[in-house]
Design goal:
196 residues; alpha/beta; five-stranded mixed beta sheet; three-stranded parallel beta sheet
Length: 196
């Protein structure tokens, strides 16, 4: 296992101290089976935020028994988004939070093929749309599905991106898209303002 209960408990306390509106966990939470690691992941049930905690699978969940982990996370109150979305009301605005399975998930379970289009079905057009994904390979499909922003786990800096910027970025093709200058996010900021 890569994490232990005390370490995760400290993270949960720090996150709660920020009084977040929502918490997004974008995969690779575990490297082991539920039977081994459930007690170490249990502190996630103590996460507190206005709109809840959301999770999307990474490739490590599939190496470690994804179905059992999905059930365990849901049991402790973390909402798992598998090619689906929720609509959050916040003040006068609405935010679509969607999630897709890991890009490689279909190799483990064909029903878990990553599908941003399916995740967006029925989402209100006037809301800002945020896609949670584990890998940046989802960027092109996210842009085509109409997402305004994408949150990836595999980036180290500036993890919120307008998907069409990544989809056409030469850096993305070189797998170093995290080096994109932040000023490229201006179109995203404008779109979010326009949508309220």
């Amino acid at each position: 296992p890569t994490i232990r209960r005390g370490y995760l408990q400290a993270i949960v306390q720090r996150v709660n101290a920020l009084e977040p509106d929502l918490v997004a966990i974008t995969g690779d939470l575990v490297d082991g089976r539920v039977a081994e690691l459930a007690p170490h992941v249990a502190p996630l049930q103590d996460l507190r935020s206005r709109h809840g905690s959301f999770f999307v699978t990474g490739n490590h969940e599939y190496y470690s028994g994804a179905h059992a982990w999905i059930n365990e996370l849901q049991r402790i109150g973390v909402r798992v988004l598998l090619n689906e979305h929720v609509v959050l009301e916040h003040g006068a605005g609405r935010l679509v939070v969607a999630g897709v399975a890991d890009w490689s998930a279909h190799h483990f379970d064909p029903a878990h093929r990553s599908d941003p289009v399916k995740a967006a079905v029925g989402a209100p057009a006037d809301a800002v749309r945020l896609l949670l994904a584990h890998q940046p390979r989802s960027a092109t499909a996210a842009a085509e599905a109409g997402f305004d922003a994408v949150k990836f786990q595999l980036f180290r800096v500036a993890q919120l991106f307008a998907p069409e910027i990544l989809a056409r970025s030469p850096q993305h093709r070189k797998r170093v898209a995290w080096e994109l200058p932040l000023e490229h996010l201006a179109p995203l900021a404008r779109r979010c303002q326009e949508k309220g």
